[in-house]
């Protein structure tokens, strides 16, 4: 397993070793001691799975009451995955990192607490799986607008398929300090 820092060093790309032969492939996606050695020490307590069609954009979401670190991967298809630093005292506040995750490249992304997360589906469909370090709490759910001009994410499409909830999320500059992580 290779742990590759991104330009936001807390966000880490994980490239597993993949063993392939005529039957298919095998890869180890999580091994506690290797993650700990790479500085990822949050225990994961919840797994989620979602399926989406081409041009769907989910996000940018985060939890304020039960902050969650996430380990994300694609089990079919291809997505553009995005993590935005929204820690109010961070020197990287409002900066983002993005990478393509796919069934083909089998890479994963570790997103620590204090980051908003979203993804855009590049393939006809994608199945997305992620581990969370804390339980989902509907009362603590928050989000940032996907098209916030101050963040200026380079999404592949200016007219994505969005949920009604995601269409109504606020811009980062409109979110009060009480709703931003430290």
UniProtKB/TrEMBL annotation:
It holds the Pfam family dTDP_sugar_isom. Its EC number is 5.1.3.13. The active site is at 61 (proton acceptor), 130 (proton donor). SUPFAM superfamilies: RmlC-like cupins. GO terms for molecular function: dTDP-4-dehydrorhamnose 3,5-epimerase activity. Gene3D superfamilies: Jelly Rolls. InterPro entries: RmlC-like (IPR000888), RmlC-like_jellyroll (IPR014710), RmlC_Cupin_sf (IPR011051). Pathway: Carbohydrate biosynthesis; dTDP-L-rhamnose biosynthesis. GO terms for biological process: dTDP-rhamnose biosynthetic process; polysaccharide biosynthetic process. One of its GO terms (cellular component) is cytosol. The record marks 136 as: Participates in a stacking interaction with the thymidine ring of dTDP-4-oxo-6-deoxyglucose. Keywords: Isomerase. It catalyses: dTDP-4-dehydro-6-deoxy-alpha-D-glucose = dTDP-4-dehydro-beta-L-rhamnose. Residues 157-182 are annotated as: Disordered. Homodimer. Belongs to the dTDP-4-dehydrorhamnose 3,5-epimerase family. Catalyzes the epimerization of the C3' and C5'positions of dTDP-6-deoxy-D-xylo-4-hexulose, forming dTDP-6-deoxy-L-lyxo-4-hexulose. This is dTDP-4-dehydrorhamnose 3,5-epimerase. It comes from Natronogracilivirga saccharolytica.
